[in-house]
Amino acid sequence: MATPKKKVAARKPAAKKPVAKKPAAKKPAVRKPVARKPAVRKAAPAAARPKVIPEHHNPPVASEVLERDGARYLQSNEAMFTFYKRTKGEFSRYFLGLRDERKIYGARCPLCTLIRVPPFQLYCPECDFAELELVPMPDTGTMMNTPPVTYFAHSLFQSWVPFGRGRVLLEGADTAVPMHVYTTKGVLTPFVFKRGTPVKVVFRDQRLGKPTDVFAVPQSELTTEQVHQSPLMESDLDFSKPQEPALPPETPAAKARLAEALKRMSKLARDVKKSPRAQHNLAGWKRRVSIKTPGGNLALTISDKALAVSAGTLKGPADLVMVVHDPQTLVEWLTFKEALTNAIIGGKLWISLNREFTTIFKLDRLPRSVLRDVK
Predict the structure, then answer these.
(1) Residue 108 burial class via C-beta count within 10 angstroms: exposed 0-12, middle 13-18, buried 19 and up
(2) Helices 357-374 and 252-272 sit at what angle, rounded to 10 degrees?
(3) What is the pLDDT of residue 47?
(4) How far apart are the first and last CA of the chain?
(5) Potential cystine with 48: which of 44, 242, 342, 372 (Cβ 3.0-4.6 Å)?
(6) Which string of b and e fits 248-271 if b means at least 16 CB within 10 Å?
(7) Out of 3.90.580.10, 3.20.20.70, 3.40.109.10, 3.30.1050.10, which CATH number does the structure's domain 252-374 have?
């Protein structure tokens, strides 16, 4: 009889002791550059949106009688509407970049690597019409030419004058982009920009997807931080505190010329009260003007059809500061030898705010208007 085998219990494997894990070494924190996020565009209420034709250009339904040279003429307010829509078509990507992303795009050929800004072509004519790719461009560059300055513009650009129209070659680009150019140091003159001037592209706070959404200013007028800031916005600049030019030392001859200018300006102020044309030039306009010269200062006040002038410093804040290098410039304005506008262009007269060129236009009209009413 066979003896049964004993069952041998299987040994349990010995429990492994837990091994303490070493704490992972912390990686040094890497500071990533903070990029400015594109502003979220929220549609303004319909009533708050600006109109294609500004409200102040919309006259009431009315007629009036004007008197000229003893004759009466009837005129009435009329209108001719020419509203239309314009599409940017296949170039919408470029203009959407201006409006929504605050970026300037160029078109780069993958074969010859030529970069065209703005991207006015979709295919490269030099490389068997290879399809171009959009690439973001830097917002710094140089002037390709000395920009002409516009002082007298039609109604579409009247609120922008004076402005320069130049071509800016952005860094890395092979073609130049046309844009307006301005200065933060007062009124724009032909002496601010020239070929090769380093410039910075500035984005307007209110953008519509148009070429005028951007403009350029000299890099020399900016801080180092502003030159490297991208995008640089219109509200990041301060146009309200331009640097006044230094005046020559006071001389007896300059004081005598200022006295002559004050005498003639006082007479002009009296003549305006008797001139319908001159009063029309100043209608609805109110400005406090400080005039500084080597012969002393003058205070000029425009108050809705009225003009006043006095010797001495203007009391209180000024809407406009005029720096005249020679008081004879004022005499020549009043004697029809040179308009204030030409004096600014020639560098003889400096004004503190670009937008106040409208005030200069009004002052330039006064001597002519008075003369016409006298005749």
Answers:
(1) buried
(2) 70
(3) 61
(4) 156
(5) 44
(6) eeeeeebeebbebbbebbeebbeb
(7) 3.30.1050.10
